[in-house]
Amino acid sequence: MKNKNDSAISRVVFTTGISSVVTQLLTIREFLTQFQGNEIVIALILFNWLMLGGIGTLLARLVSRNYWQARANRLVWLSLCLACVPPLQILTIRVLRDVFFIHGSSVGFYPTLAYTLFMITPYSLLVGFVLPYSLFVLRSENPSYPGARIYIIDNLGDVSGGALFSFILVFVFTPMQAILLANLPLLAACILLFRVHRRPHAGFYVGTALVLAVLITGLFMETPSLATAEGKLVHYRDSLYGRITIYQDQEQFTLFEDGTPVFSSQNLVMAEETIHYPLSQPEKPRRILLISAEGGVMTELEKYSFERVDYVELNPAVTAALLRYGLIKKIPGLNIIHQDGRAFLSKTNNTYDAIIVNLPEPETFQINRFYTDQFFKLVKRHLSSKGILSFSMQGFDNYLADPQRLKLSSLYNTVTQYFEYVLLLPGQKIYFLCSAEPINQDIPALLTSKGITTEYVQGYYYGNLTTERIRRLNELLDPTVPKNFDKTPHLMRLMFFQWFAKYSTSPHAFVIVLLVLCLIYLIRISREEFVLFSTGCMTMGSEILVIFAFQIFFGYIYFQIGIIITVFLAGLLPGAIFGNKLADRGSHLLTFSDGLLILLLGGFLIALILAADHLPIIFFLLFGFVVSLICGFQFPVALRVRGDDNPAATRFFSADLIGAAAGTLFTSVFLIPYFGILWAAVGLIGLKFLSLMIIGSVHGKNHATTVSLL
Predict the structure, then answer these.
(1) If we measure between CA atoms, which residue out of 212, 207, 158, 134 comes closest to residue 20?
(2) CA–CA separation, 536 vs 525, rounded Å?
(3) Mean pLDDT of all residues in the chain?
(4) Residues near 538 by Cβ (< 8 Å), separated by ≥ 6?
(5) What value does the CA radius of gyration of the chain take, rounded to a whole number of Å?
(6) In sequence order, what are the beta bridge partners of 511?
(7) CA-to-CA distance for 320 and 690, rounded, in angstroms?
(8) Which of 490, 500, 259 is nearest to 371 (CA)?
(9) How far apart are CA 149 and CA 10, in angstroms?
(10) What gap in Å lies between CA 704 and CA 62, rounded to an integer?
(11) CA 49, CA 128: separation in Å to the nearest integer?
């Protein structure tokens, strides 16, 4: 019989799902802005979140059984704490980042892992604790309450939170405003539960008021929390594509995008090199494509008699801020296009005399797509017969370190497939000049012949870029280094290794330790738990594949991350409902669904091989939805096979979360960097084959016996 508390507790579980997903998405975006938008940061956050959630789930059983009996009023206080933590978490991430690390600096893998783990531990443990604890509260008065139902209610809340964030909050509200709005339903559900359970007292009202006060205080701390010692914050906006902040130091304005300084109002050297190195080569450059910009480049462009400059910038908020604070100026013939640069080139019929790519080094898959074989092929089609392509990499003073030499070699080997002449010019940045015509390296003389005056290039070029230095750089290139492709991004592998080498560390020890811990865990679980472990691993591994594929083929993730996670959550709900209805049919459903997952990922792999560049966004989203649907289907089936008691529910919740954590990290830190996304998909298929063999080997036997998997 339905207990009077059932509906009230279900509302708490549902609203907790809304709050937790919105908090998770805001936390991911916050860390992305603090760590240069690196996709591996997303994986580290998800790994820590899921691992801590799994630990919290196990603690719920231990604590409720031995120390803290499950009661409705205790669930209320836990939920109030849960509503209180998100604003504190976001503010702490912002403030302590510049305490532990230098503002705007690059951070190594292990410090990033430790910092993300430290920042999200309280909230993630609490979220993992609350879900099974809610089930225990329900079963304390209604022992027959099905565990799959609480899983379904939680999924419904998760999906609602993801949809709320992706389609409303992200467009209209700041992070602190979104946190307040996402936690108000949870506060209301706590009040209703307390009223059902017992008459509210002064202590409860004081606690609720304190939580609300913390949420409101977050609104007033939003902008002050972004202040730094380097300058005065004069502009802040969380846009769809990243966080934009502008700091003023005396007369200089510097724009930071996702925590990285990308524009400065006083950077004459970079502006002159960016424009005059390539534009000195064509006799009369008329049509120019500029993919992103540098402070002062428009002033240098005005020195040429061009017809049109197409300036492509993905984020409209960036160009609005640049124009407002004078980092660039609007010049005659300038056409500003708010679109991904590669997507623009793939759709336009325009031909250019010069294409200037002014982007940072490919530290993310989003940037790497402008340094691949497919991009250079696309550029070649849109250049005139004597046109020139220019892009740059990080420079060096006297010694070219081996990781940087390998990166330059990979780029050189890739771009020379399409351009007969490629010249590298060393300096603060190493500029690649690529053309079908011979390239004249006496750039000051060319500028003088055109009647163009410069301060830096004509004053310091001969002293800094000697013929010997240019020759030596070009001789250091290694023709045997693999080329850089979209689906096998060798440059990203080199960047990944350089990330560790920069801090004299290695990912190997971490991966080995994680493997040992996984093996110890797998020895102690049942076959059905392994099915859920492998499914969670495959689901999150597939989610990571989709996230990386989005960066590779579409070029932006800051906005899309909410939609991707929401879609992966959305499939869990109908899958769980359908699985709950068919759960009595036995464990052969686990075998059948494992086979479907293998076929699904196999189809995804074939599609990437045959038509990766032409796959629409909906393909990736539909793939994610179906994967999560099958994952949701398996949970109630496995739970029913194991008896659906409290210990089984706890272990199955935990197996799902721990498997998801393992899949997140192994896919992002090992499979993709070492083997690329295609072989990463093959690895996930192999894991599911193992699961299929294990569950199939005992089909028709007694599944209630816990056995070793190794």
Answers:
(1) 158
(2) 15
(3) 83
(4) 597, 601, 627, 631, 663, 684, 687, 688
(5) 28
(6) none
(7) 53
(8) 490
(9) 9
(10) 22
(11) 9
What is the length of the chain?
710
CA–CA distance, 380 with 427 (Å, rounded to integer): 26
Q: Which residue has the tokens 């430290």?
A: 118
Kind and range of the H or E run holding 598 = helix 588-611
* List of residues 6+ apart from 246 with CB closer than 8 A: 233, 234, 235, 236, 253, 254, 255, 256, 321, 325
- Taking residue 52's Cβ as centre, other Cβ atoms within 10 Å add up to 23
pLDDT at 569 over 80: no
Confidence of residue 336 (pLDDT cuts 50, 70, 90): very high
Look at residue 14 in the predicted model and tell me its pLDDT: 92
**pLDDT for 706 beyond 70:** no
How far apart CA 138 and CA 469 sit, in angstroms, is 74
**Can you list the positions of beta strands (E) in 187-257?**
232-239, 242-249, 252-257
* Mean local confidence (pLDDT), 682-704: 68
DSSP SS3 for 252: strand
Confidence band (pLDDT; 50, 70, 90) for 180?
Answer: very high
Helix axes 39-66, 527-553, angle to 10 degrees: 150
Amino acid at 332: P
Sequence-separated (6 or more) residues with CB below 8 Å from residue 661: 46, 47, 48, 49, 50, 51, 54, 540
Helices H, strands E: what count in the chain?
27, 11
Sheet of 232-239, strand order: 232-239, 242-249, 252-257, 260-264
Of 620 and 502, the structure prediction assigns the larger pLDDT to: 620
Separation between Cα atoms, residue 607 and residue 616, nearest integer Å: 11
pLDDT grade for 270, boundaries at 50, 70 and 90? confident
For each of the domains in the chain, give its residue range(s) and CATH number, in order of start.
1-173+175-221 (1.20.1250), 228-257 (no CATH), 268-482 (3.40.50.150), 507-710 (1.20.1250.20)
Q: Is the pLDDT of residue 354 over 90?
A: yes
In single-letter form, the type of residue at position 146 comes to: P
Mean pLDDT to the nearest integer, 15-36: 87
pLDDT score, position 310: 94
The helix (H) or strand (E) run that includes residue 697 is none
Q: Judge contact between 170 and 240, C-beta under 8 A.
A: yes
pLDDT tens digits for range 49-92: 888 888 888 888 788 776 777 778 888 888 999 999 999 999 99
Contact 78, 129 (CB under 8 A): yes
Could you give the CA distance from residue 502 to residue 112 in angstroms, rounded to a whole number? 14
Tens digits of residue pLDDT in 181-233: 999 999 999 888 887 766 666 777 888 899 999 999 999 998 888 877 667 88
Query: φ and ψ at 479, to 5 degrees?
Result: -70, -10
Q: How far is residue 390's CA from residue 339's CA, in Å, rounded to a whole number?
A: 20
Report the share of the chain in percent with pLDDT over 70: 91
Q: 669 with 40: CB under 8 angstroms? A: yes
CA-CA distances (angstroms) from residue 504 to 110, 114, 486, 501, 507?
A: 11, 17, 28, 5, 11
> What's the confidence (pLDDT) of residue 34?
80
Residue 202 has a CB neighbour count (10 Å cut-off) of 7
Cα–Cα distance between 427 and 429 in angstroms, integer?
5
